[in-house]
Amino acid sequence: MKTLGIHHISAIVGHPQVTIDFYATVLGLRLVKQTVNFDDPSTYHLYFGNQEGEPGTIITFFPWPGARQGKIGDGQVGVTSYVIPKGSKKFWKKRLASFDIKVEETNRFGEDYLQFNDSQGLQLELVERADGKKNTWEFAGVSSDAAIQGFAGAILFSSHPFSTGELLHTGMGLQKIGEDADYTRYRSEGSIGNVIDVKKIPMGRGRSGAGTVHHLAFRAKDDHDQLQWKEHIEHLGYVVTPVKDRNYFHAVYFRERGGLLFEIATDPPGFTQDEDIEALGKALKLPPQYEERREQIESILLPIEVKDHIN
């Protein structure tokens, strides 16, 4: 079996408005869905992506104001990688500098990266590639010629790097395409969210909290494909959860041997099932089980807005 690559990445942060300001106003991503944490409806679950909110472009956040700061380490996505169009690196260097964001230029497997932290400590990077389609969303001074297209991939920090790599390769169908002193690189057949680098030397256990990734989701074509994945992963000796209905996709979860929480999520039904594409992210959408509590939930949630500039 072969996954096409990353479906979404979910992280823990603090204040929701700070998160929106960074990912929408600084990075120019589209807020494609504002809903609530299905397990804790007193807090938001925010989704950002490309114009259509397609798999491979979606980063999601669980914002808990006042949450303790986490520690990035083994058992987590260490760095979330975004792909930008060829020729746009100069634009992004200038833009990030205009927001006083410190950027480090690095090279890995012959590719040049711009690495930086978001406003709450998550480690991000941008890399130019020809892969993936153009993102037509334009916002806050980011044109479609420079807009983030979606995920380039991720760097995984694992307490057992060999086991994590074996799962990616023999269990999930990614091809091993490179190795250096620090990382092993794997690639899926998808056009986006398709490159995973595994850090070869453990760096110490991470601690969940604000500024850390909660889980990494891989793509399943549909419900039938997902059930095949569930059986396949269980056959490999992992404990997989029952299917969870997340409204915009269906999900199963398992903890791999290096400590990372992996999810397998279906591409459909997508984010337009309860909003037209033009209206994505503009209104609070609640799962059916919480709709009768809307007034109470709205009274608890902090007010948020998407701004085209930061004062």
Overview of the molecule:
The protein is of the alpha+beta class and 311 residues long. It has helices spanning 16-26, 89-98, 161-171, 223-235, 294-300, and strands at 6-13, 30-37, 40-49, 58-63, 76-84, 104-108, 111-117, 123-128, 150-157, 175-179, 183-187, 195-199, 212-220, 244-245, 250-255, 261-266. It has a single domain (6-300), classed as 2,3-Dihydroxybiphenyl 1,2-Dioxygenase, domain 1 (Roll), CATH 3.10.180. 17% of the residues lie in helices and 34% in strands. The chain has an 8-stranded mixed beta sheet. Strands 6-7-8-5-9-12-11-10 form an 8-stranded mixed beta sheet, with helices on one face. A hairpin with a 4-residue loop joins strand 14 (244-245) and strand 15 (250-255). The longest helix is centred in the last third of the chain and has 13 residues, at 223-235. It starts with 5 loop residues before the first strand and ends in an 11-residue tail after the last helix. The mean pLDDT is 97.
Instruction: Assign an overall shape.
Output: globular
Based on secondary structure, the structural category is alpha+beta
Low-confidence stretches: none
What is the gyration radius calculated from CA atoms?
18 Å
Strand order of the largest sheet: 2-3-4-1-13-16-15-14
The CATH superfamily is: 2,3-Dihydroxybiphenyl 1,2-Dioxygenase, domain 1
Element-level helix/strand string: EHEEEEHEEEEHEEEEHEEEH
CATH classification class? Alpha Beta
How many domains make up the 3D coordinates?
A: 1
- Percent strand equals 25-35%
**Largest β-sheet summary:** 8 strands, mixed
Number of strands: 16
Q: According to CATH, what is the topology?
A: 2,3-Dihydroxybiphenyl 1,2-Dioxygenase, domain 1
Mean pLDDT: 97
CATH architecture: Roll
What is the helix tally?
5
**Distance separating the two termini:** 49 Å
